[in-house]
Structure formats: C-alpha cells, structure tokens
Specification:
alpha/beta; 6 helices; eight-stranded parallel β-barrel
Amino acid sequence: MRTRLLLLTDRAQLSKGRSLSRTVAECVDAGLEAVVVREHDLAPRDRRALLDRLAELAGLTVISSRIADPAAHGLHLAAHQERVDGWHGRSCHSADDVRRAVADGASWATLSPYAATASKPGHGPPLPHDAFARDAGIPVFALGGIDPGNARAAVEAGAHGVAVMGAVMRAAEPAHVVARLLAELR
C-alpha cells in the first residue's frame, strides 16, 4: 500500500447533519487515497450502499472493515479474526501481532494504540515507539490518538504512515485535517 494515510470511518463522531459520504468525498478532494469503512452497525443493505457510493470516488481505495464486501477493494481484519485469502490488512496491538499478520499474508497492518485516544478511552497504554519496526515486511500504520501534531513523529518512529479516525471524524472541517495530516507526512 503506497498511501501514508488511512482514514477509518465512524459516522457517530461526525458533526450533527454531516453525511459520511460527503465527508469522505471532501477528504478525497483534499488528497485522501484510502478509507477503511467501519460502520459495523449498519444494516447489510445500507452498508453495501455506502461502500458502493464510496467506491465511485475516483482515486479512492475502499477497504471494508471486518465484513467482506464485493464493492470494497480489500478487507481489514480485526486482531481476532481468522486468516483470509485476498488483499487484506489486520489490526495489531504488538510487534508479535504484526509478525503473525505478515505470516498470514496480510498486505498491511495497523498498530495501536500509538497514543491516548478519545475514541477509545482507557485503551492502551500507548505502545513503545520502537514497536514500529521499519523492516516489518509490510506497511504498518500507527493508529490511536493520531492527529497533525504527532503524525510525523509516528513515521519517524518507524511507522509507514498513520491511520486516523477521531481527529478527522470529529473535526468541524474534516478535509482540512486530512490536508494537514498529508502535509505532515510528506
């Protein structure tokens, strides 16, 4: 995976009245190249419609979280999910988890928590920054508590890039945060 920024969705964190589809489209206009669609609580038909809409956005790689979907380009597995065939990544919580993901054929991994996060209070403690081995064999994205103020430090600690949810989803101007994150990652 080339991109340095993965956006994870959570429509519950959006400002009242803001649509998830519109938010992601605005973020794509700001340079976003990949999104992991969570929204596990949506009815299957509604989730499929969301994935279909997002897959129509030019230049966006759409990854479905936990639930395989033909509209998505790939699948992001939870740490506990069984291995699958096809282009997929995995949520990891230690360097050992990343090694297992590589052995199971994952093409990327998220490693969390990088920092304390409002999205999952009490989740952690944050990983030691040496957990982000540059030679992991796959791109590893720092996840958890990422914002424009610490994105560059995560990459300097060895992460390929960053995966962000709350800093973008809770922002008054999500696309502005994406643009700032991408500037920090250049």
